[in-house]
Amino acid sequence: MSMPSSPADVAMISFASGLLASSRSRGAALASGLFFVSGLFLALIGVYPSGTRPHTFVSTWFYAQSFLATLALAVALLHERRRGPGVALLLLSLTPLLLAYLVEALVGWPSVAALEYFGAAFIAAAAVVAVVAHWQHPRMPAGSYRSAPFLSS
To answer: Over 29-55, what HEC string results?
Structure first.
């Protein structure tokens, strides 16, 4: 049985790989691994039919893993003293949970699809912030973990 792939799966895994290649710290490298795993969960969403227990599990963990990866990247950027993108990613990782509960408490979500779209919008916004942050800083500082002799080839 081959695993189906969609453009979203490939994009998430490619994003994680690019983030790893341009990471300037171990924290950013950790975040890229978390994004990679969330891409695998995204691929598994297509494997299991909607409404089954495995589908619910992989769908939930795709969102949870994506927000954890965003949080990890935020902390890594803040540790690198890159406050602008770090704070933006911190807000994009923590705000969705609070807003989702607030909407549920006040009016309720009309459907699971609406909640998933809401989560996907925050994940997409975080990806844009991460790409811009890493595009603007392509050079690794001296002494970064990637400049270690055993990692260069």
So the answer is: HHHHHHHHHHHHHHHHHHHCCCCCHHH
Q: % helix / strand / coil in the chain, to the nearest 5?
A: 75, 0, 25
Q: Which of 65, 68, 19 is nearest to 42 (CA)?
A: 65
Within the chain, how many helices (H) and strands (E) appear? Answer: 5, 0
Contact in structure between 91 and 122 (CB atoms under 8 Å): no
Angle, CA of 43, 45 and 57, to the nearest 5° = 125
Q: Indicate the pTM of the whole model.
A: 0.81
pLDDT digits 0-9 by tens, 72-118: 999 999 999 999 999 999 999 999 989 999 999 999 888 888 888 99
